[in-house]
Target: 2-isopropylmalate synthase
Amino acid sequence: MKNRFKELGYELKDDEVESVFQSFKAMAEKKKRVTDDDLKALVLGEVSHEKPIWKLGDLVVTCGTKGFSTATIKLVSIDGSTHIACSVGAGPVDSAYKAINLIVKEIVKLLEYSLITVTKGSDAVVTTRVVIQRENNMVSNPILNGNNINPTFSGIGEGVDVIVSSVEAYLTALNKMLRFME
Model:
């Protein structure tokens, strides 16, 4: 696998190869054929990340044409403790994001949400991008002569599941925001 990544133009350390390989195995269980584009998306999604403050443990979403969408989510904190919350929303992504906010106890405004497919077919890899902003979080910026700003934070998630990809993108942005606040 390390040689294949090298052929694709990626020089990965052994621990990075292992991390991407675990994601590859999970993808291979869901897809009939994993393409070079899929491998590239996996590398971009797994390599060069700080240790997250929060990461996805489990996710269960219920949605349909009747009633509200619901999400039950388990997040794992940096210290290894698990936290579970449930929420309802206008759709499966909205309910998942609301459940995350209940756990992290932050009021977050979603400014942008976009999806693009990286590969083709019904088992295509999707890339989700979000931009968030903490509500009422004005920060003094010395570069702007002390004027206050409210910074934004972006996140990207990839995968064959749109909801999981959306949650990963949101958690990436949220972790950036929480790191900034430290």
In short: DSSP finds five helices and eight strands in the chain. The two ends are 37 Å apart (CA to CA). The chain has a mean pLDDT of 83. Residues 54-181 form a domain with the Double Stranded RNA Binding Domain fold (CATH 3.30.160.270).
